[in-house]
């Protein structure tokens, strides 16, 4: 069997061979516990973690002490939202987020609502964007936290994060961003923003699954959600995943070195894909903002096509409908619904997300495949 062309990098990325090579010795040769200060095994691991922390800090424009390694973005988001809520209970119980967030944020908010939090879910415009004014208008004296994702995993829509963070911070609340899709794709300089907390994941960045990080600005009140051993300055206990951390550091370094050339390269390929499909099907719609968008992502709605049949038939390319992270859900995408799409159009929408190994030849094959499948699957309006 020939493998399909992989165009689902927003779901996960392959581990970069250079990342794998860098992490491998930390399974066998340098297997020490980074907390073992009494011998060279531990010191070697501790050094490797310090180096990786610096590599990640450099990518983010953060200080190494502001980074907490976690088991992935879901854990980082849980720690950020629950940890801030718990630490600020005396100040208020109001949290603001957006309808188009990842389930990792929405489900945590639901959990906090059970514990007495009052949650406001902002509605984006038809392009998926929210404005800083919309956020400030929703703030009350009880608002302790605002969480807005940097770039959407389904549509690629990029929010005006720096402006939102500034407003929120200046009004006395904390600001968290789920930057899982932004890190490594967009330039980020946390020293120049008022973002208080930022979540990220290794496996969206050519590092393995099961490693991530939370950025916590110095002096941000946060209560640990996992106790025992006081690792990571007491913010996340548990023996450090040294190979994963080494991998994340290397992946950060590679992303930083490649970003200036990789982002325009991907945008050219993504635009080629879009043009190829739209030239053939002029009524195809691009979901989300075209102006404020990740370079690697396009989400296309195919009117008058049976969405389920479409996805089933696109077997020469690996793409998705909605989020892989809404595991096993057959509901239409909550993100596309929030943008105002009908159920039918949300089902008939396909996300293409390109990555480091995507070539022009891949894109040309994908265009031909999509054209032939959609032609077979189109339902005549007159029928
Ligand atoms: C993948 C993803 C997550 C979850 O990350 P994990 O490391 O798999 O827990 C959260 N938010 C966004 C936007 C994502 O794309």
TrEMBL record:
It holds the Pfam family Aminotran_5. It catalyses: (sulfur carrier)-H + L-cysteine = (sulfur carrier)-SH + L-alanine. Gene3D superfamilies: Aspartate Aminotransferase, domain 1, Type I PLP-dependent aspartate aminotransferase-like (Major domain). The keyword Translocase does not apply. Its cofactor is pyridoxal 5'-phosphate. It is an enzyme of class 2 (transferase). Its EC number is 2.8.1.7. InterPro entries: Aminotrans_V_dom, Aminotrans_V_PyrdxlP_BS, Cysteine_dSase, PyrdxlP-dep_Trfase, PyrdxlP-dep_Trfase_major, PyrdxlP-dep_Trfase_small. One of its GO terms (molecular function) is 2 iron, 2 sulfur cluster binding. Keywords: 2Fe-2S, Iron, Iron-sulfur, Metal-binding, Pyridoxal phosphate, Transferase. The keyword Magnesium does not apply. Residues 5-365 form the Aminotransferase class V domain. PANTHER family: CYSTEINE DESULFURASE (PTHR11601:SF34), CYSTEINE DESULFURYLASE FAMILY MEMBER (PTHR11601). Belongs to the class-V pyridoxal-phosphate-dependent aminotransferase family. NifS/IscS subfamily. NCBIfam families: PRK02948.1. This is cysteine desulfurase.
């Amino acid at each position: 069997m020939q493998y399909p062309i992989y165009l689902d990098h927003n779901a996960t990325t392959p581990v970069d061979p250079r990342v794998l090579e860098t992490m491998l010795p930390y399974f066998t040769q340098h297997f020490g516990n980074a907390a073992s200060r009494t011998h060279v095994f531990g010191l070697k691991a501790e050094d490797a973690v310090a180096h990786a922390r610096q590599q990640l800090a450099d990518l983010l424009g953060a200080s190494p002490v502001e980074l907490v390694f976690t088991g992935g973005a879901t854990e980082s988001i849980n720690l950020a939202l629950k940890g801030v809520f718990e630490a600020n209970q005396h100040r208020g119980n109001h949290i603001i987020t957006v309808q188009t967030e990842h389930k990792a944020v929405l489900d945590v908010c639901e959990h906090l609502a059970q514990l007495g939090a009052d949650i406001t879910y902002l509605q984006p415009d038809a392009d998926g964007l929210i404005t800083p004014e919309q956020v400030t208008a929703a703030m009350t004296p009880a608002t302790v936290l605002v969480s807005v994702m940097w770039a959407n995993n389904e549509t690629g829509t990029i929010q005006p994060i720096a402006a939102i963070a500034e407003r929120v911070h200046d009004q006395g609340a904390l600001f968290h961003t789920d930057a899982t899709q932004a890190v490594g794709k967009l330039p980020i300089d946390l020293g120049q923003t008022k973002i208080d907390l930022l979540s990220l994941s290794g496996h969206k960045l050519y590092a393995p699954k099961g490693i991530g990080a939370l950025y916590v600005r110095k002096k941000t009140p946060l209560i640990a959600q996992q106790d025992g051993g006081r690792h990571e300055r007491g913010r996340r206990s548990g023996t450090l995943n040294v190979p994963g951390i080494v991998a994340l550091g290397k992946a950060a370094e590679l992303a930083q070195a490649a970003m200036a050339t990789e982002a325009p390269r991907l945008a050219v390929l993504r635009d080629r894909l879009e043009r190829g499909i739209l030239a053939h099907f002029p009524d195809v719609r691009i979901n989300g903002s075209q102006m404020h968008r990740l370079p690697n992502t396009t989400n296309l709605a195919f009117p008058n096509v049976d969405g389920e049949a479409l996805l089933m038939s696109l077997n020469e390319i690996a793409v998705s409908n909605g989020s892989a992270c809404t595991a096993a859900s057959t509901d239409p995408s909550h993100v596309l619904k929030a943008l105002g799409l009908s159920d039918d159009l949300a089902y008939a929408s396909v996300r293409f997300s390109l990555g480091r190994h995507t070539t022009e030849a891949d894109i040309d094959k994908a265009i031909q495949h999509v054209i032939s499948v959609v032609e077979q699957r189109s339902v005549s309006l007159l029928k």
